[in-house]
Design goal:
Helices cover about 40% and strands about 25% of the residues. The longest helix has 12 residues. The mean pLDDT is about 90. The protein contains 5 helices and 4 strands, in the order ααββββααα. The protein has a 4-stranded mixed β-sheet with strand order 1-2-4-3. The chain is α+β, with helices and mostly antiparallel strands. The chain is globular, with a radius of gyration of 14 Å. A hairpin with a 2-residue loop joins β1 and β2. It has a single domain, classed as 3-Layer(aba) Sandwich (Mannitol-specific EII, Chain A), CATH 3.40.930.10.
């Protein structure tokens, strides 16, 4: 579900989504902070264009017994360098309890966009 916008916009192939799911089963490093996961796979597994999509889960979903995930941000990168800036911005977001909670509790897409914009301009 979280990767659907990337497939719909043809930034990734459906095979990329399968690869992401397969990687999630064995990669605990997709959890970058409390409530945030960044599932991804290798560029050669079906990425056409750089992109990200965000799925906000109000109730959250258990990734492991240790992690409740409310924000799933799927990353699609065409190479291993191009997404580094975005990854650093996401890591900074993951460190802000206030902004994470604002995203989780947001009532509108505009509220979410407003928080994300503060990180996109840094």
């Amino acid at each position: 579900m979280s990767a659907a916008p990337l497939v719909h916009s043809e930034q990734v192939l459906p095979a990329y989504v399968k690869a992401v799911i397969d990687h999630c089963k064995s990669d605990p490093y997709i959890v970058i902070g409390e409530n945030i996961a960044i599932p991804h796979a290798a560029p050669e597994e079906g990425v056409h264009r750089v992109g990200m999509s965000l799925l906000r889960l109000k109730e959250g979903v258990r990734f492991t017994t240790d992690h409740l995930i409310n924000l799933v941000i799927v990353i699609a990168a065409v190479d291993k360098e191009q997404h580094l800036k975005a990854l650093l911005q996401l890591m900074k977001l993951a460190q802000s309890d206030e902004d994470r909670q604002t995203l989780i509790r947001a009532r509108t897409a505009q509220e979410i966009h407003s928080v994300l914009q503060t990180y996109a301009t840094e």
